[in-house]
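Tutorial, part two.
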Amino acid sequence: MQTGRGLLLLAPNNQTLVSGSTNGSIKIWQLTTPRPIPLYTIIGHSQAVRSVVISPDGQTLASGSVDQTIKLWSWRDRNLLRTLTGHSGAVWSVAFSPNGQTLASGSNDRTIKRWDIATGQLIDNFVGHTNPVWSVTFSPDGQTLASGSGDQTIKLWSIKSDTSSQTHTQSNTLSQTKSKYLKQIR
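Running the prediction step on this input gives:
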């Protein structure tokens, strides 16, 4: 089973694992046996899948890929719902807002984008990092978006003003931004 940054996700039922693959596929694994059993393979991306996430209501799976796209899939039947395009580099991270109405994506193009899930429209384009954005996450109230970048910074973005409200520098390359960190600095 291929593993790595942002490639694994434990489904809310704790019985299913989702993994992104270097061949562009997404695999869903059953965990109720001593060894994981592959249940389904979702084909759709043309290059490696770097991030997977399930919406808070458990209905939608989102995947980000080196092919510069984000795909939204029905969790129930695994059908493609829509493809989000707009990044000019690999998509390294995707995250649903707490209410599940929007999705954030971080990319090699050094931007963070926020998308409307119902329409697929781009809502916000956050610019400020000088290296690829490796990780994105929302605050529990959904009003702040955090991004971690290869430029060794974490930026906090106000959803209401589309601006960076705080920048925190790390002493080594940042690869993951966690909700715990958001709670510590607020």
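The chain has one domain: 8-185. In part three we will examine how such features are distributed along the chain.
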